[in-house]
Amino acid sequence: MEINVLNLSGKETGAKVQLPESVFGVEPNDHAIYLDVKLFLANQRQGTHKAKQRNEIAGSTRKLHKQKGTGGARAGSIKSPLFNGGGRVFGPQPRDYSFKLNKKLKALARVSALSYKAKDNNILVLEDFNFDAIKTKTYVKMQEDLNVANDKTLLVLANVENNNVYLSSRNLKKTKVINVTELNTYDVLNAGKLILTTGAVKTLEEALAK
């Protein structure tokens, strides 16, 4: 798939980049996408939820009344889950929600997500660039020139040290800027428009092409 390279003003530079079929033109695997997104969301969970069980509640362990003859239910101590302030039965405990996926499966999920974006013509390719200063106004103008101001966008940069672009965009809603090494299936699918630099395309080809 061949696509025109744009500059920051949204004009065609005359250059074209070839999006490799092995990365942007595969038959998407929906189950691989599901598993990778599930893994991403699971890894976001802190897992620090905690409710006290009856053995962790502070209080007396004295039996409140005799076992039989009261006309009511049997009751042990005030820490019983039957009473207000008592322990909770099977309450949430701290846990780790992460699980393991094979590298090949995660790679398949990424290329499947990228192929969906290419199939829907939701990919833009920009020439490599950097901002001289941290200015949100500059980033907003770039979005307007690219006609993506009203879309949820994901900009993927190739340069690890391209920090001015990231800092210029972090206050904007519906906008995310990442390095190509941070690309994941969830962010690709969550964005309406995927914006890649030419360097990022080359890196993706080297990392994911078979």
UniProtKB/TrEMBL annotation:
Domain of life: Bacteria
Keywords assigned: Ribonucleoprotein, Ribosomal protein, RNA-binding, rRNA-binding
Region (Disordered): 50-89
Gene Ontology terms, MF aspect: rRNA binding; structural constituent of ribosome
UniProt key word Ribosomal protein: yes
Biological process, per Gene Ontology: translation
GO CC term, one of those recorded: ribonucleoprotein complex
Coiled-coil features, chain-numbered ranges: none
Pfam families attached to this UniProt entry: Ribosomal_L4 (PF00573)
NCBIfam families named among the record's database cross-references: rplD_bact (TIGR03953)
Family: Belongs to the universal ribosomal protein uL4 family.
Job description of the protein: One of the primary rRNA binding proteins, this protein initially binds near the 5'-end of the 23S rRNA. It is important during the early stages of 50S assembly. It makes multiple contacts with different domains of the 23S rRNA in the assembled 50S subunit and ribosome. Forms part of the polypeptide exit tunnel.
Record text on subunit structure and interactions: Part of the 50S ribosomal subunit.
UniProt-recorded name of the protein: Large ribosomal subunit protein uL4
Classification lineage: Bacteria, Pseudomonadati, Bacteroidota, Sphingobacteriia, Sphingobacteriales
